[in-house]
Amino acid sequence: MKPSRLIARAAAVAALLPHFGAHGQELWDPHLRGVNIGLAAGALPPEGLYGVLNNYWTSVDKFDHNGNKTGLKVDALIELPEVLWSTGIKIWGADYAVAIAQPIDYTTLKGDGIPSNGRWGAFNTILIPGQLSWTLPENFHLKTGLAVYLPTGSSSPGRLPGGTFLGSANGFWSLQPSLAVSWLRAGWNLTMDATYSYNFQNTDTHYRSGPQLAIDYTAAKTIGKWTVGLGGYQENQLGDDSGSGAAACAQTGGCRASNYGIGPLLGYQFGSLKLMGVYTYGFHTRSDVGGNSFNLRLSFPFQ
Questions:
Q1: Alpha helix ranges (H) inside the chain
Q2: Which of 72, 97, 263, 275 has its CA 20 to 30 Å from the CA of residue 221?
Q3: Residue 186 CB: number of other CB atoms within 10 A?
């Protein structure tokens, strides 16, 4: 989940939402770009209950379909707590886990005549009813799962509080199947973590965002209590938006969003608590917002 496609202006916000949504998805991407960098995403932890807290800060500019800045800018602090239960149950030879997450965010939209406007809000609740992880030969691990994004956010396109120019959540359901592969050996972690977001229609705006593929990459080495490495991400919209205003994309040669970033990571193990910082530099953006981000992740067992 991240500030992805800015859709609002200072005047006549409700009427303009569909038009600006046509720049590639209505508002936020379900997957927070680069959030899983540094994780051995193909594997599950041993049986138990675990907590993860991502403290994610980003400052991004809005780019049009030619890769030019539009003058709009978003600053966001996103707190993403997650609880994961690795059940110890085996299904088809795989370890089985479930999880739940409830992100909250503080977003500020500015530029193009919009006064600086910051507000806290709740994003869509994320339910993960199942993850299956297989331990394979040659130190490979394979994990698949499904996340369900509920339209429970505190504000969204079509439901903006007075004086607000940017909603804190998406006003639609999303289904997000995932597939991750990790190679783990002698402290090395080479991981590719891919998610596919299928979005339903926003019943308030009658707008439907196109499907999206997001992939987080990790190449890291753990030496003693320290972990160092490099991460990257890509996000590509695979289908066109639909609904009122979406036809504007066809007139400009297409508005499918794309975004790429890369950066270093550094982690340290404090007993059972693992702390990791990940910085990413967004080097290519079209029909999206792009820029730099920093994520400070804490992960720990509850027992």
A1: 13-21, 248-251
A2: 97
A3: 7
Percent of the chain's residues with pLDDT above 70: 85
Start-to-end C-alpha separation, the chain: 29
Task: For residues 300 and 303, give the distance between their C-alpha atoms in angstroms, rounded to a whole number.
Answer: 9
At CA 57, angle to CA 53 and CA 61, rounded to 5? 145
* Digit-coded pLDDT (tens) for 16-48: 222 234 445 667 888 999 999 999 999 999 999
The whole-angstrom separation of Cα 258 and Cα 171 is 22
Q: Which of 177, 249, 179, 267 is nearest to 207 (CA)?
A: 249
Q: Can you tell me the distance from the alpha carbon of 197 to that of 30, in angstroms, rounded to the nearest whole number?
A: 7
Among 10, 112, 101, 105, residue whose Cα is nearest residue 58 = 105
Helix (H/G/I), strand (E/B), else coil: 171: coil
Q: What six digits make up the tokens of 192?
A: 């590719």
The answer to whether the beta carbons of residues 153 and 121 sit under 8 Å apart is yes
131's tokens: 């993850």
Other C-beta atoms lying within 10 Å of the C-beta of residue 72: 22
- Rounded Cα gap, residues 121 and 117, in angstroms: 13
Rg of the chain over all Cα atoms, to the nearest angstrom: 19
DSSP letter, residue 202: B
